[in-house]
Design goal:
This protein is α/β, with parallel strands linked by helices. The protein contains 12 helices and 10 strands. It is 45% helix and 14% strand.
Length: 278
Amino acid sequence: MTHELSANSFTSKQIRQLLPSRARDAHKGNFGHVLVIGGDYGMPGAVRMAGETAMRTGAGLVSVATHPEHISAIVSNRPEIMCHGIQTPEQLEPLLKRATTIILGPGLGRSTWSKELFACAMQSELPMILDADGLYWLSQFEILKSNWVLTPHPGEAAQLLQTTSKAIQANRLGAIGMLHIQYNGVTVLKGSGTLILGDSHKAHICNFGNPGMATGGMGDILSGIIGGLVSQKVPLEEAALLGVFIHAKAGDMAAKEHGERGLLATDLLPYVRKLVNS
């Protein structure tokens, strides 16, 4: 059903083709408006990282929908993010109407608030990147979309397929094939040798990345990269492939300069910016 293609063949020339130089008369509206939904109590950092990464990848505008209590923590260090305190699904609806791309799940949590925001976002027809607890809520409902990117790690993939992480790791290629059949769209199965599978029905494997990236927040960075690319009108499958490549290469560049131990997710941001401009 699927076969592997090495992501090593994804060259800087191909990156330039997907992200061409910007017109001199461009404005922020040309590069999309990403809406990040998440950040339940105790987890404002996740939406902050996803939102800031989308901006560093080149999104024109980024909004965050989170608990009102988190606004000052997010905008105090990143004032470019438009942060909205959301307590009910009705408050989320006008934000969905202004956005062009959704990132759903960073720090979303598993509360009633989380479930209601997930259900509200699912009504949107916008392209969507689904991660973290967004994938948990997806496992609780039968939903198919063609215009989303799912980014599960093996544990989340196991929940989506009602199996075990051990079974996922034993046959990662088979697992991503089943995820694509069951949920449609594009799937990124994270881990050592991240796999990407979309409507081309060709599974791509990323041979970059390092053990230093096994730390909290790396998934939020990846979601932000992919969301930022989608907002710039990169097609979903190409955005997933390119996003995984940039994420892994940025991790390798950061580890080469400073070492693998102690590598933080936000350490990747300067290299992400360098790569999208290279």
